[in-house]
Amino acid sequence: MSEHKRKRGRKPKIPDAEKTLDLPSIAASADDDDVVFSVSNVEIIPTTTNPSISSAAATTTNNHHPDHRPRRGRPRKHPKHETPEEKPPPLPRAGHCRPAENGGADFAGDVEPGVARVVPAMDAVVKVFCVHTEPNFSLPWQRKRQYSSSSSGFAIGGRRVLTNAHSVEHYTQVKLKKRGSDTKYLATVLAIGTECDIGNSGYMYIHFVLGDVAAMLTVEDDEFWEGVLPVEFGELPALQDAVTVVGYPIGGDTISVTSGVVSRIEILSYVHGSTELLGLQIDAAINSGNSGGPAFNDKGKCVGIAFQSLKHEDVENIGYVIPTPVIMHFIQDYEKNGAYTESYRLLLYVIGFPLLGVEWQKMENPDLRVAMSMKADQKGVRIRRVDPTAPESEVLKPSDIILSFDGIDIANDGTVPFRHGERIGFSYLVSQKYTGDSAAVKVLRDSKILNFNITLATHRRLIPSHNKGRPPSYYIIAGFVFSTVSVPYLRSEYGKDYEYEAPVKLLDKLLYSMPQLPDEQLVVVSQVLVADINIGYEEIVNTQVLAFNGNPVKNLKSLANMVENCDDEFLKFDLEYDQVVVLRTKTSKAATLDILATHCIPSAMSDDLKN
Question: In 286-334, at which residue ranges do the beta strands (DSSP E only) sit?
Fold first, then answer.
């Protein structure tokens, strides 16, 4: 084997004190076949230090003395600085470097050299223990077996604690435990926001737990608040900003810290499309129990509430955070409209986010824009449908072109300018408003520009996504159990995959139907409790009731009133799929009492139908 000859190199030059060490240029200078660079063999020296830089690991001299031969492995250590002034400042911690705008390497990121990163307020993060007792929507006269859960929360100003809404949903008892404490303190639930349930997102259907903006708690015991400093809220982070999620996930009892960066900021569809709100996507690990914990930035300020992680075979490291604008909207909504009373839990639920009660279509096709009489410089979206129960129905019409909202022009794809280099759906502008606020809307109708000042309000769908803590309504006559359809009801009947298992007509109404009246409900025959009087009707399950004795059924209460006050000989129910149920009035009412006793049902109707 021939011996490989070593090339001769030039003598190293001592760099000037003003020159900086450019890592890309170092890697590019390794064009000599005999010089091998390794990151572990390079010691980075800040530009403010001694200008002499060791070059023993990078070059080979002509001196053949054994001491000058090229060495393998780690280069020699530099002599220590004699004075403190010459000592270089500490390098930034790993994980906090990000590219500078000039294309170089900004190792300090947002942290100045020699300045330590701000430590988040760990002592403000608490562990939430809750006992839940959920309603049984399939058997609405009873509740399910109670169960316990643990999650995270954090203290804010005013002796209050924030957590996720689902952490205390259907609560029976809530307790909080501070970091390093062995005492659990009883907590009082002040408010629950049930607007944010992430739904359809991109190509896959993401289903998360019900109702997830936030819940607000408090503790009356003064001992709990000793030594607790409230968390400060920061601004909405930018892409690639570092975030630290703190909480009490599964796998241990002590506090846990995970870190990552903001990977996406966009409008997400919440509560199965009924609300669109801002959301953050991060790559930090969010596990069961992290929900409700704060997400901190590098300055130690809270930028959101850890929400949920996406578990799917095609994705990795996707977690969601409810950002500070949504959180502050919830807090201010509670301070403006919320209340708490021991005897009436429905006041716990805040009013929520308003909606523009329309469905719209993109105007990206040029032929469509010409057909709608849009000029070349005009952009906007076309209104497909208007919610007949919304205040907007008085001024807006189908085929109107929404050109701007509150003076901000809307693009043909439905987006508006957000931040530098970013655009976001114009529903973000709507979500910044509060119920009852007014907004200026400019529309194009029949080649004319019209300006309207509309009042924003919250809207309900025909099939609501949650019952806001109310027990399910029901009515029983002759063994027929009548109930209303909601998302919790569908989940109870068909499981977590109800969007695939439920009847197509119910799913169609869930996704596309709008209520024609403010109090309209979708009433169905949930099941038939078998008895002699209802023989032949046993197989009727989850079928919509359209009319009773020729009168349309608009909600469950109207149906119960019509049946209870009926003096006709027969009870006739017109059902979906052209089915008809006919029963004798007197025998049906008499048989109901026996059926209730057989199935241990305390009442023929829920309490809300009695009043």
Answer: 294-296, 302-309, 319-323
Phi, psi of 546 (to 5 degrees): -95, -40
pLDDT score recorded for residue 318: 83
- pLDDT at residue number 451: 97
Contact 309, 319 (CB under 8 A): yes
Rounded distance between C-alpha atoms, residue 156 and residue 136, angstroms? 34
CB neighbours of residue 315 within 10 Å: 11
Element (H, E) at 478: none
CA distance 602 to 374: 63
How many Å is the Cα radius of gyration of the chain? 33
Which member of 150, 170, 197, 256 is catalytic? 197
Give the helix ranges, DSSP H, for 312-374. 324-337, 366-371
In the set 150, 151, 152, 291, the catalytic residue is 291
Which one of 132, 151, 152, 166 is the catalytic residue? 166
Strands 302-309 and 319-323: antiparallel
Angle between helix 504-512 and helix 487-494 axes, rounded to 10 deg = 160
CA gap 360, 18 in Å, rounded: 59
Q: Distance (Å, rounded) from C-alpha 133 to C-alpha 559?
A: 29
Query: Catalytic site residue 291?
Result: yes
Q: Whole-angstrom Cα distance, residue 222 to residue 385?
A: 53
The whole-angstrom separation of Cα 481 and Cα 500 is 24
Tell me what pLDDT residue 313 has: 64
Cβ-based burial of 2 (10 A; exposed 0-12, middle 13-18, buried ≥19): exposed
Q: Which residues of the chain have pLDDT under 50?
A: 1-5, 7, 12-68, 70, 81-112, 114-116, 196-211, 272-273, 339-347
- pLDDT recorded at residue 492: 95
- Is 413 marked active-site? no
d(CA 99, CA 319): 24
**pLDDT for 162:** 94
Residues 594/598/599/603 CA torsion (nearest 10 deg): 30
CA distance 469 to 548: 29
Q: What angle do CA 559, 565, 568 make, to 5 degrees?
A: 100
Q: What angle do CA 97, 102, 108 make, to 5 degrees?
A: 25
Q: Given this model, what pLDDT does residue 207 score?
A: 33
Residue 386: other Cβ atoms inside 10 A: 20
pLDDT at 336: 79
Q: Is 166 designated active site?
A: yes
Beta bridge partners, 323, equal 304
Quote the pLDDT of residue 338: 61
Q: What is the pTM of this model?
A: 0.75
